Amino acid sequence: MMALTTDATPRIHLEPSQVLKDDHRVKRLIATLSEGIFYDIDSKKASEILQECLKICGGSNETLSQVLQDKFFGDHTPFYWAITNKDPQSHALPLLEELAFYGGALTKETQEDIVEAFRVKFDSVVYSTMKHRLMRVSTLDTCSPSFFQGGEHSPIVTASSEYDGVTTVRFEIPRFFDRLLADGELSLQFYALRATFCLSVSVTRKGDGRSRPRWDFNLAELPPSGHRPMGIYTVLQIHSEDGREKHARSYGGFYHPAPPKMEVDELRLVEFYRTPYTANERGALSGELTLNKASR
Fold it and tell me: Which domain of life does the protein's organism represent (predicted)?
């Protein structure tokens, strides 16, 4: 890795165009930012990286803001690369936080590049931290309103394409039974297969006073206006922990021009009985969906 300089920020006024037309400065920016994009770093290192970028831009925050929103880094902005190269085992992204701080007010083009990154690698935690900056583009409601709001109660959804046409979506929903009985429903929106999906859970009651309520999963694609949903195969797995071992229960593969209701045939689970699937410290239901785009 290149060593970051520690000298004082030079006060040389440079316009963004001057920086971007200077091949040496652009290479220095790419080399510096790469340390935070392709390697694991902490917040201190992320701050040092952006301080170095500030020096390369002549010490001007305004110039740096505009440079960071240019697609000089592999045909995308550094925001895109920070998101698509995040550690899949972590929801922390210190470089993105620093980029957002120095980037300031984001242009529509930059916001679109950020959304494109989330379409490649989605993380609901990271997305939620950036959503308030995406005012000029359409955004997702990552989770429906709930009595159990924020912090440790927030559901987590991640999705990444393993290869063309196949995406694995992982989810964890804390206080699952509590949430459904208090709210009556739950919906999670996310990007996968470069499309927008909604995974919802609804509770049904027979009202005869003798039957227990039960819940069902529904998966729906939310295509743009005028577009038809894609054909898709889906496989649902629900995870449980037994001591130190983890188990997964699969609930078949489905195909439909639009994704169908996915019925979980574990009666005790869907009728709110205490089971290994939710009997954990957070009362969380976790699992994954494999989405396979059907070939035409």
Answer: Eukaryota
Per-residue exposure over 219-247, b if at least 16 CB sit within 10 Å of its own CB, e if not: bbbeeeeeeeebbbbbbbbbbbeeeeeee
Cβ atoms 229, 249 nearer than 8 A: no
Mean pLDDT of the chain: 88
Distance in angstroms (rounded) separating the CA atoms of residues 289 and 267? 20
**Pair 208, 255: CB distance under 8 Å:** no
Mean pLDDT of all residues in 251-275: 73
DSSP character for 73?
A: B
**Distance of CA 64 to CAs 26, 104, 172, Å?**
12, 10, 38
Name which of 233, 235, 230 is nearest 257 in CA terms: 230
- pLDDT, tens digit (0-9, with 9 covering 90-100), for 162-219: 667 889 999 999 999 999 999 999 999 999 988 899 999 989 887 766 788 889 888 8
Residue-by-residue DSSP string for 271-288: TT---TTT-STT--EEEE
What is the C-alpha separation between 35 and 41, in angstroms, rounded?
8
Burial of 139 (0-12, 13-18, 19+ CB in 10 A): middle
